UniProtKB/TrEMBL annotation:
Residues 38-104 form the RNA polymerase sigma-70 region domain. Coiled coil: none annotated. Residues 135-185 form the RNA polymerase sigma factor 70 region 4 type domain. It holds the Pfam family Sigma70_r4_2. This is Sigma-70 family RNA polymerase sigma factor. The keyword Transcription regulation applies. Belongs to the sigma-70 factor family. ECF subfamily. It comes from the Bacteria. NCBIfam families: sigma70-ECF (TIGR02937). InterPro entries: RNA_pol_sigma-70-like (IPR039425), RNA_pol_sigma-70_dom (IPR014284), RNA_pol_sigma70_r2 (IPR007627), RNA_pol_sigma70_r4_t2 (IPR013249), RNA_pol_sigma_r2 (IPR013325), RNA_pol_sigma_r3/r4-like (IPR013324), WH-like_DNA-bd_sf (IPR036388). Keywords: Sigma factor, Transcription, Transcription regulation. The keyword Transcription applies.
Length: 194
């Protein structure tokens, strides 16, 4: 019983491999429908490979599309060495390259921020400090129910979701308080104060 199920599985796998090879030959010959069928057959697998590296659905979808574009370009050099493995390698390399590039961009950005901080004069640092102090003092003049959300959003740079979680509010409430706070500021504060 067990041996017969293995034989059935091997025949099914063999049939799938033969079908892949036929599709690949048709794609190489320029048949668009064969390309669509090949992509349809492997899109789930390619997504899983890219997602396993980047852990972000949107990025994984984009990388899966890029993988298939790379596949089309590289298909003429494909030598029937196991299509699924070959395609998986392309997907994995795309995802790893993306992750490395993203890490380099973060590094470059933090380097740029440090360079900017170093290049500021003592006067600039003092002026920025004074501005932050003035804004913080002005926030204290806001109605009490706006102060926390304004401080968290504009000074601490937190998102609506983070503020809602920390202050036990609904996101919509945070949004409404910020809207009303901006309205209040426009009516009560002068632009040249900052």
């Amino acid at each position: 019983m067990y041996a017969s199920s293995i034989r059935v599985d091997l025949k099914r796998r063999e049939g799938s491999l033969i079908q892949d090879e036929r599709l690949i030959e048709k794609v190489k010959a320029g048949h668009q429908q064969a390309l669509r069928l090949l992509i349809e057959r492997y899109k789930g697998h390619v997504f899983k490979v890219t997602y396993s590296v980047v852990r972000d659905e949107k990025e994984a979808e984009d990388l899966a599309q890029e993988t298939f574009m790379k596949m089309v370009d590289a298909l003429p050099s494909y030598q029937s060495q196991g299509f699924k493995t070959w395609l998986s390698r392309i997907a994995m390399n795309k995802a790893i390259d993306f992750k490395r590039k993203k890490a380099r961009q973060k590094e470059d950005l933090s380097h740029d921020v440090l360079e900017y901080e170093r290049s500021k004069s003592a006067e600039q640092v003092w002026l920025e400090h004074e501005k932050v102090t003035a804004v913080s003092q002005s926030i204290q003049s806001l109605p009490a129910n706006y102060q926390g959300v304004v401080q968290a959003y504009y000074i601490d740079g937190k998102s609506y979701r983070e503020i809602a979680r920390e202050q036990a509010l609904e996101e919509k409430t945070v949004e409404m308080r910020l809207y009303r706070a901006r309205k209040w500021m426009k009516q009560h504060w002068k632009e040249d104060e900052f």
